[in-house]
Structures are given as C-alpha cells and as structure tokens.
Request: fold
Amino acid sequence: MSVIDVAKTDPTAGKAIKAPASPWSMALRRFTRNKLALIGFIILVVMFVVCFFGPLFSPYELEDYKISMKNKPPSSAHWLGTDSLGRDILLRMMLAGRISLVVGIISTTIAVIVGATLGSIAGFYRRGADTIIMRIADIFMSMPTLPILIILGAVLSDLKVDPKYRIYFLMLIIGILGWTSLARLVRGQILALREMEYMQAVDALGIRDRRKIFRHLLPNTIPIIIVAATLGVAGAILYESALSYLGIGVVPPTPSWGNMISAANNMIDFRKRPWLWIPPGMCILITVVAINLIGDGLRDALDPKTKK
Reply:
C-alpha cells in the first residue's frame, strides 16, 4: 500500500502526535476554568497592586497630622475621609494592607516550612519519630489558637516591645502555632508515597534519607502544601486583624486593618463616622473571601480525580 493510500484510509496519518499535557498545565487549565477562583485571583492581585504601589502616588504622608481636618467625611481631597488626627484614611488603609498581607504571607511561610519538614520526617521514619512529632502536634492542636495569641500579645505589651519589632514577633507566633494541620496532611501523603514502587527503587540505590525526603517525597506533596498555605494566609490575616483590633497586635502609629477598625470603639464614631471603619473592614472581608476562593479553586484544580 502506498503512502497516498494510507493517507486516504487513515485520517490521522501524517498528523503530528501531540505530547500529553503535564499535570501542572492541566491544573492551570482547570483553575482558569473556575470563574470564582479566577475572580478571587484578580481581586487579590488588584489588592496587592493597590496596597504596595498606591501609596507611592498619594500626595499625603503617613505622619501628616492636621487637627483642623480631623474626622472629615470623604471628599475630593480625601477620597475616604480623615481620621481623628486628620490623617488620610485611604493612605493609611493601603499601608495597613501591606502590613496585613505581609503578616499573612510570612507567618504562613513559617508554618509551611515547619509543618512540611516535621510532617515529612514523621511520615518517613514512622515509629518513634512519628509518635513524638504527632503527640507534639496534638498538644498544639488542643490549645485554642486565638486565646493563646491574645495572651502572648498581652505579654509583648507588658514587655513594652517596640512597635517596629512587634510585628516580627507576631508573624513568628502565628506561624509556630499554625503548622500542625499541614504536618498531618504531609505525613499522610508521605506514608502513602513511602510504599510506592519508585521509592523501593530509590532504597535499592542506597540514597541518603535526607535526599529521599526532600528530593523524592516532599515534592510530591506540593499540591497539598499549596492549597493549605493559601487557606492559611486568610486565617493569619484574620488572626492579625483580631489581635490588632484588641490593641495587642500591630499597634499605632503603624497602621493595620485591625487597629483601623478599632477606631470605631464608641457609638459616635460607629454611627456617624462610618468611613473610619467600613473601608478597612471591607478590605479584610474582600481579601479573605478572595483567598478562600483561590484556595477552593486550587484544591479542585490540583485534585487528580478532576477530569474537567
């Protein structure tokens, strides 16, 4: 049979065979098809751009105190009004967004590093290491996070820690208290991956344990880590906002969305000056909802059972 005859009988003849799509490209395709997750991603990008680049274009400074302009409603000069010291609310809200987002990201990064490392060690070595690490995780999980954060924040206040450095302690505390759930997830994945055939081949090659964990096992848990970290950022932002609202987190003059809301701590401001607390409150709401939408979208996109 000639080539022409083959082409006539086989419609696929002569066509290039497409290489199968990689798991990451398929996950990206599924994520972009999720409209809610895509909306959340766009909102979060806009929030980052506004908070980190918006203050560069503001005509005001953080420490611009104008008592004559205090508690002014929104106007063309001050789009979101001014606070009790005559400071521009819009500028403070953007700078507060930097603090809240950075606290969320860095504290979650600390939790991911600690949780992924301890979870992989527990799942790989099992027995004694697994028992010790998981019992420590049980102790941490049995403690109510928010009351512990409040106590530690009060301790920082009693020690009169400089507000400039207080935020670093806050990120460290939130990160250390938030590693347990991720450690359990990673441990479960490592226990399953440990019995795979490719790991038996790795054992036969005599590779060191550290290389087995960080080169062959831990990379296969990245989808779970990404989803957990995304949702952890939202939780960290809420914790920081709650502590700052109570006056034991980020304290003035450093702005954060939480301590901006605490400005409405009396009925007069609450009822007659809504521009003091509604904008930062809406920023917390929109940011946390956007992050949760992204987390749900990533969970569906990285699920190998999803066929969309």
